[in-house]
Sequence to fold (591 residues):
Amino acid sequence: MTYQILLDGKSLYYPGDDEYVIYNPEINLKMNQAGTAKMTVPAINPLYDSIENRKSMLTVKKNNVEVFYGEVRIHTSDFNRAKEITAAGALSFLNDSIQPQEDYGGITIYTFLNKILTIHNQQMLGDNRKIIRMGTVTVANDPEMLPDMVTDRESTLEAIRKNLIDVYGGVLKIRHTSGKLYLDYVPLSAYGELCDQTISIGDNIMDIIEDYNAEDLKTVVIPLGARIDDNDSDFEKRVDITDVNDGADYLVNQNAAATYGAIWTVQVFDEITDPSKLKAAGRDYLNRAQFERATFKITAVDLSAVDADMSPFYFGDRVKIQSYVVNGAYYIIEMTMKPLSPESERIILSGDIRRKKTTLTGAISSAGAVMKDTAYREALKIKKVIDGEVANIMASFTGASGGYKVEEFDNNGKWKRTLYMDANNVNDAVNIMEISMRGIRFTTGGYAAENSSAWKLAITIDGKIASQEIFSNIVFATLLKAGIIEDVVGKTSWNLETGKWKSGTNEYREYLQIYEGVLKGVYDNSEIGYIDLSAYTTMFNGSYGHAAVIGSNNELNIEFVDQINFCDRRQNNRIIAYIDGNGFHGNVGSY
Fold:
């Protein structure tokens, strides 16, 4: 995954270049908003003096796909003459024009949008950068139900929000094609594409925050249409559905009401005079209002950075989520991109939760989901421990005291190494960072601690790293060599040398051992059973003990040769029933 950043069509940032550099770039996108791009440009950048407010155009490309195009609005210089610049997306150009006071009456969405864009373009006074042409319009209103569209000296963008988005929904999309801008007005489902990269636990989810909102959920609606003149009534009269709905003036979504209960609302459709069309409009409203709105704030690693065959995340795309919290495809409605640190990118997805009736199979699946959900949340706890360690490490750099820098040269006058120390000579220093042609290393035990464990970290010039501890949420590796793998809280470990797998205790009192094709169960150093995986057929041998447990009081002991025994642990494992070749025997008789 590569990013390109251009200023007026010229490279402002080029990966690996010593001059075309920027710092801390961040692009923030949000549905139906212009979006922003922020970054710091140092004075050494060749385009430093070319940056001008309200004139310079900034372009950001991801894998050669344009993800941001906008105008520099703010730039400030710090003590080192570095410029901090902020650009606003091209949708913001619609804030630079004002719509007149005009009542357009009942017209189609396409006609209205075309009229106000024409006015916007006329007001740009020949500035071709801000001319916006009609693009794709697939959000449509019923030609028989055309409410009045009115503008009243608001910005063009506000006029669009008030007359279109707030009434019909849909999303705005600015396309920059062949140097020209086009405005699309489409449903969210048509904004992007289905991304073939899946967000899942264990692969690329770093964090997930769930927000379920049922404030707008309704299960019963009273739809009302156009006003009816009735001078004899003290109440406002409107068209209703009683004549076409068996005398009832309301509609119920039975499935939603069974799940959430009766939640009533009144919806007014001023333009509808036909009761049948009013009933259809009410039913359509209920179909849209029966779901909770789910929003997921996700920090996910874009795996396209390490797998060129995988599609990257793009704003507006639909992405599949596979977690123990939610499964389904959801839309990216907010996105933060960080070209210099893609591992810190964040996306926010949104969609409807569609409840299903619970069957026996569904209940069993739900029980499994609960266990998976618990495991997922445990994984997040572990992540928080790691995050805490990382935060502590980063915080230790804040307010750190100064030190001494010593450079050493050999007998020929060539640079040998540079030492950064807490004392002005190597013999008295305790904390030392050494940089040489071999690499870089650190010690907290003084230089006399050569080759001892006091050297905490070393990075060699040929790419090798030696460290006491490494904290990371995700590690990508072709081959991982280790002695013992243990979770961060010490509950589970796997000794790769002996094959012992321990879980739930701090000592190796009870564990599984996988060694030379045999899976063994061990308790207090005694073998309680094994499966011989090296045989042509899988073999099992068990003895009385802990082969399996049923409930909290009974134990199942399996012996394929003789019988299967059911024991009561409260009575010193007294056999209370058993199965042998003659059938089942117990307190209830034999079968």
